[in-house]
Amino acid sequence: ITPAITTRRAAGIDVFGLLGFTALWADPSGTYDRKLGVWIGSTYVMPSRPIYWEQYVHRTVEQFTNDIATWVVWDRPDSEAFKATPREYTEQMLAVAHRAALEANPRARLISGGVTRENLGPFLTGLAEAGAGRYLHGIGILPSTSPLAPEDGYMDVELARAQRIRRQEHLAPDLWVLNLGWSSGE
């Protein structure tokens, strides 16, 4: 991915990195099929041991220290496929990633993976209760109204609601809107 990063940076684009997903061999329920010579499992689960996640984060952030300073930790930590509570995500992913990333690059900034609009209330509240703000420089949200335009999907209402929850729960990190998308016609 180095050529893609170099090209984007040369064009003046600030490149963010995504930390995730889990290697198949690190899936707690993963198995190795000797006949096929492949691992079978899920990449959407927490690694079976924290040291696997810690080493992955450390090595990745260290390798791209000169090119990437901001890292998104996981994608959609509220998804049903991930099956983690906000507390589990905070303690087993964010806390570990924070320690490893800052050791590899003291200038690293961490943003949580984007929380979908359907789960903003409970997940943001859960992150606050778990103390996620200690480990983050920003909280990712996905308020996309796709396939509707933002105006038709009440994106302004969703963003205002997310800010209210953030203030009520005393979450210090700013909200970062990630992955906006909607159709723009034919």
What does this structure look like?
There is one protein chain. This protein is α/β, with parallel strands linked by helices and 186 residues long. 36% of the residues lie in helices and 16% in strands. It contains five helices and eight strands. It has helices at residues 2-10, 50-63, 86-104, 120-130, 155-168; strands spanning 16-19, 31-33, 38-40, 70-73, 109-112, 115-116, 138-142, 174-177. Strands 1-4-5 form a three-stranded parallel sheet, with helices on one face. Strands 6-7-8 form a three-stranded parallel sheet, with helices on one face. A two-stranded antiparallel ribbon has the order 2-3. The radius of gyration is 18 Å and the shape is globular. The relative contact order is 0.13. The model has no long low-confidence stretch (mean pLDDT 92).
Report on the biggest sheet: 3 strands, parallel
Strand order of the largest sheet: 1-4-5
Mass-distribution shape: globular
Number of beta-strand segments? 8
Q: Helical element count?
A: 5
Radius of gyration, taken over Cα atoms and rounded to an integer in Å: 18 Å
Reading the helices and strands in chain order gives: HEEEHEHEEHEHE
The percentage helix is 25-40%
Sequence stretches where pLDDT stays below 50 over 5 or more residues: none
Mean of pLDDT: 92
| Oligomer state of the chains in this structure | single chain
Query: Span from first to last CA?
Result: 32 Å
> What portion of residues belong to β-strands?
15-25%
Which structural class is indicated by helix and strand composition?
Answer: alpha/beta
